[in-house]
Amino acid sequence: MPERERHRSQRSNWLRAGVLGANDGVVSTASLVLGVAAAETAKDTILIAGMAGLVAGALSMAVGEYVSVSAQRDAEHADIAMEKLELATVPERELDELTEIYRAKGLGPELAREVAVELSKGDVLAVHLREELGIAADELARPIQASVVSAGAFALGASLPMLAIAATTASNRTPVTFGVAIVALALLGSLAAKLGGAPITKATLRVVVGGAAAMILTTVIGRAFGAAVG
Fold first, then answer.
1. Where are the domains of the chain?
2. In which band, very low, low, confident or very high, does the pLDDT at 4 lie, cut at 50, 70 and 90?
3. CA 208, 212, 213, 217: dihedral to nearest 10 degrees?
4. How many alpha carbons fall within 13 Å on the CB side of residue 59?
5. How do residues 147-198 score in pLDDT, each as one tens digit?
6. Residues contacting residue 210 through CB under 8 Å, at least 6 positions apart
């Protein structure tokens, strides 16, 4: 039996959670430590702030993904339950609906009816879920997977600016951390584009420009507040 072809859309749940988590980890943590570094030169203080941001951000991403994807899964289960009920109580109406779907796809009335009848002899629920609702039973939203992937990706992304801060001195920590974050964002953008089949240059520029703007702005604000307090 030939292996089932897997499409990019089948990776949408974990890919979205992973890309969002990693991008947030790099941008938010780099912005945080750069902002603190602009106002405070003590490395311990910067690292403590960064670690707090890493932990809080990872947990926030995990909870947010779990809640949002759980809501999506609940909606999918509700649709499945409704479809089961309609197939059990009004099967002829459901068959008519399926026939109309195939007619809308270009089949003639008789052929559309024949296809609907033949497909209904198998897993009729799966057919209706796919054709009416665009739902595949084996590709439902997975809250725990999205939560774990998002949190892990955030922590991984956040660790890069943290390592850059830890490995540098007061004189070069800002440019080095900024550079590490930009490279990480560029790699992340190109990887996401490749996996998702999007234009690599456009996706990479979008991630890099947005991240750079966030880091520059927080650095300016940190320096301004540091000067005001000093």
1. 8-229
2. very low
3. 160
4. 6
5. 898 999 999 999 999 999 999 988 899 999 999 999 999 998 888 787 777 7
6. 27
